[in-house]
Amino acid sequence: MRILLVEDDPQLGRATQIGLDQSGYAVDWVQTADSALSAVKTHDYACILLDLGLPQVDGMVVLTRLRASGFAGAILIVTAREQIADRVAGLDAGADDFIIKPFDLDELAARIRSASRRSGGRTREVIHHGDIVMDIAARSVTLKGVPVVLTAKEFRVLLMLFEHLGRVLTREQLEETLYSWGEEIESNAIQVHIHHLRKKLGKYLIRTIHAVGYVIDKPGTTAPEEPQ
Questions:
Q1: Residue limits of the OmpR/PhoB-type domain (predicted)?
Q2: Does the predicted TM-score (pTM) go above 0.85?
């Protein structure tokens, strides 16, 4: 999942970015309203963490503009404002959750999962697909009851394919989810992750659509072609 963090405090912003990165998220961090609105135009974010006390333009204005522009992902307000009126205003303006600073990173990650699950139409934190069980909260995967060790990026690729079951995702769409600003992307990075997932979970799990991308078929569909 790719997240946009909008926080003007350098220390808190960097600490949050590092903490969420260690939890398996790709995090882009900006410090102003203009940068946030520009980033949303050029990248596909599943979730935005939005501070209200931004310089020049208040976070509530940013929230209103984001929803007015059609942004449908999860938006979590993260602020030091504790008044009930601020919470009500934020939720009424389209926020999915309201988190008071200081916060615990584990709780923040849980709230991100919850809000993203709702906005994405998922109802569960555990995904079952044949003999594969994926626990999103625990960041664990089992095959026929046996734990399978995945890297953070392999886990993200698998989750995105499961969340778009039956839909072909391009390499560019997968890269957009996996990598934040400044991360070096090898030209064959996605192909390598797919190769490793097939070795660990079965060579027919992920199907290659030539010159288009990758897909995990819905149960009961026609048997896939040989993977490439």
A1: 124-218
A2: no
